[in-house]
Amino acid sequence: MVQYVYEFAEGNRDMADLLGGKGANLAEMTRLGLPVPPGFTVTTDACRAFLATGTEPDGLADEIADCLGVLERSAGRRLGQPDDPLLLSVRSGARFSMPGMMETILDIGLTDDSVRGLAKVSGSERFAWDSYRRLLQMFGSTVMGVDPALFEAALTRLKDSLNYRDDLHLDAPDLARLVETYKNLISGETGKDFPQDPTEQLRRSIRAVFESWNGQRARLYRRREHISDTLGTAVNVQRMVFGNLGPDSGSGVAFTRDPATGRRRPYGDYLPNAQGEDVVAGIRNTVPLTDLERLDPTSYAQLRDHLEALEGHYRDLCDVEFTIERGTLWMLQTRVGKRTAEAAFAIAAGLAEEGLITHDEALARVSGDEAARLMFPRFDTAAVGEALAHGIPASPGAAVGAAVFDCAEAVRRAAAGEKVVLVRQETTPDDLPGMVAAQAVLTSRGGKTSHAAVVARGMGKVCVCGAEDLVIDPPGRRCTTAGGVTIEEGMVISVDGSTGTLYAGVAPLVDSEVMRYFETGERSGELVDAVARALDRADAVRRLGVRANADTPEDAARARRFGAEGIGLCRTEHMFLGDRRKLVEAMILAHTDADRVRALDALLPLQRQDFIGILEAMDGLPVTIRLLDPPLHEFLPDRTELSVRIATAEAQGNPPSAHDAELLAAVNRMHEENPMLGLRGVRLGLVAPGLTAMQVRALAEAIVERKRAGGDPRAEIMVPLIDAVEELRLVREEVDETLAAVSEASGMAVRCPVGTMIELPRAALTAGQIAQEAAFFSFGTNDLTQTTWGYSRDDVEAAFFSAYLDKGIFKVSPFETIDPEGVGRLVRIAVAEGRAARPDLKVGVCGEHGGDPASVHFFHAADLDYVSCSPFRVPVARLEAGRAAL
Ligand code: ADP
Ligand code: MG
Ligand code: MG
């Protein structure tokens, strides 16, 4: 038979699937001998069975009765016993922490009779009536469905009628009156009385906690956090302890280390003479935990011992909730605590230093995303004012600007040179121009995969979304915070995309010390040292190489400083922009071979110079040069603009110049409906005579020059957009001829491996053939994703990706994280068949996925040799490649 109920002493921390996180950790603390009020956990199995059928599964009631009996015997009194009642809490607790999302009901067992017994045994009338009214409030709203605002309103009315400002002024008779009011409220609203049978209270509370799993708040939260709806929650039933029994009682939260900085010092908040819920609710001001040392040195010393025991046992930062009842300390909850990126690195390094975890474990405890967050300038947490609002940190960084509430205003102000923050309930594709114009995007709705979040991340723009306590009033051009602050259009606000926090005014910025370390190599400061240690470890264990995508000597040099082991993608098209565009135009317009040769000859020395610079910056490391990739018409004027200009001039009686006419003819000739699938990549090299030879000659001559200067150039030539091995064979012939010619002319043997991008499904599927001609493969996962899914990236992201994400068609954009089943399958096929044909084939990836943590893990598993990503992502890729190898 299934066991539905476990006493705390029966469970342990590995049972979180069954007992929920809270239950498993309560069990673990019990086993460790920490003072946990006794109790038992109803399993997630029971919850799932209940939610599936709408009734408690067979046997559950008996098991609960048994465990309750054990509790009652150990306490020496019965649940709700009139003269000395045992009181219970009923607490939700799912597998994954869902803070505040589900229900907890305290003080179960109080009735019209037992409230008097409690008053007598506790010696406090006020405490007894206050506990009873809390039960009525929680049970009334959670179990019986009365609007919680009605209880609040009744409380406020009572205080107003008595001219009290504060709950603390209510005395026992006041609270007894409030209890009457609440009971009437419940029967008035529901037509039923508050149950006076304690076991009925308990049974219905457990049911209500089960049901709270499907509450609206909980569902929304799970969707955002990608937590499955089918897990269900466990329910913890526990003896109540009381922090509100006088000045020698109280409640607090504590961390084993500072979760903001990772520093090893006691950290937390304490509220004397209060229940735990009062600490969280923020009704009264807490004091720093360290004050407890003065208030109750014995409990404080015990708490510190317990914190140390927990950290030693869990070997990680833990947080706890505790209550002191008349000088006796009780532990109510613990878990491995959340922390900032900074603290994650500091704690991992600290625990490894203390020998509590290994260096590999320390590496596993930090992430590339956290490292990336530390590379942005951030607000000076010591100097920022109070937060105005909190949302979901969707795209990191710190931004300051004037609040604007519509796209047009954002564009207008930005055009006038003003920095703006676009504030919207949510964004749509219509908001794109405003998002481009803004420093940051702030929304009150939507999660990490909302339109705002996806688009902002793609643009590298700061974004906080789902700041639900902001009431945004677009027609009124303002918004209001939960604290009642109104932000009018034009008011300057500061948005922290790394923490999800909004501040008023200009929050002071500090440069990233981690970035400074990468730029200068200066390893100073605790945080930098912690980050450097993690990266050192990652470098020692990773199997994947990490290269960078870089097109200029400056980028190449930066990539090298950031730890890149070469260039995986050097795009040559960027070298043809600006002034050089005219030269490309001349090449396209050339009528005769002589004209074309002249145009190419003019480009050659410029291109050679570019290569020299890059090879120098990456001396001794591989540099993968990609032959020209984009359609040629990208180097010509825009078709519509040109047509309009010529037509307008003609209408005014000015016939177009011969050059313009020729240009227009060329633009029309080369126009493509789907340029992404048109004349580009290797296709271009094969039909534009002399282009490939010019690029290869420039590279070969650059190699000669670098060698003459005593350098160690290691160039590789990469051919883009191959579909068929024949294409590669033809290009290689031209490359080999050109290399031979340069070798002969220079008297120096110039060799250069030729490889190909694999970025079309056909190439992946014929990789065995292609490998015969290729020294290496580099997966161009951007184009491979476009062509595998049939998506035009520039069109689809804004058009329907947020809808697709909401509908769960994918959890993350396939352009952000590689789609392992489709695109990834092509990668695996190509790796296997390519290596079978050529065992020494080198295989890398140069799409943007190369810097995405989840994708790096995939590429490691797919056994690639290296990933290549933007210089700024190099540390992220190094770290994740190391973690993937653990
Ligand atoms: P959450 O998961 O939202 O933190 P909890 O189950 O921890 O909910 O309960 C909320 C509050 O109720 C806690 O702050 C805790 O202090 C208080 N509480 C829960 N159980 C007990 C108990 N047995 N005795 C005293 N207070 C309790
Ligand atoms: Mg809690
Ligand atoms: Mg491509």
Automatic annotation (TrEMBL):
Signal sequence span per UniProt?
Answer: none
All copies of domain PEP-utilising enzyme mobile, residue ranges: 418-500
Q: Looking at the record's lineage, which domain of life comes first?
A: Bacteria
Q: What class of enzyme is it?
A: transferase
Decide whether keyword ATP-binding is in the record: yes
The record lists Mg(2+) as bound by: 759, 783
**Enzyme Commission number, as recorded:** 2.7.9.1
Q: Which Pfam families match?
A: PEP-utilizers (PF00391), PEP-utilizers_C (PF02896), PPDK_N (PF01326)
Question: What UniProt keywords are attached to this protein's entry?
Answer: ATP-binding, Kinase, Magnesium, Metal-binding, Nucleotide-binding, Transferase
Query: Keyword Nucleotide-binding, does the record have it?
Result: yes
Which reaction is recorded as catalysed by this protein?
pyruvate + phosphate + ATP = phosphoenolpyruvate + AMP + diphosphate + H(+)
Q: Which family does it belong to?
A: Belongs to the PEP-utilizing enzyme family.
Record protein name field = Pyruvate, phosphate dikinase
Q: What is the species of this protein?
A: Streptomyces aurantiacus JA 4570
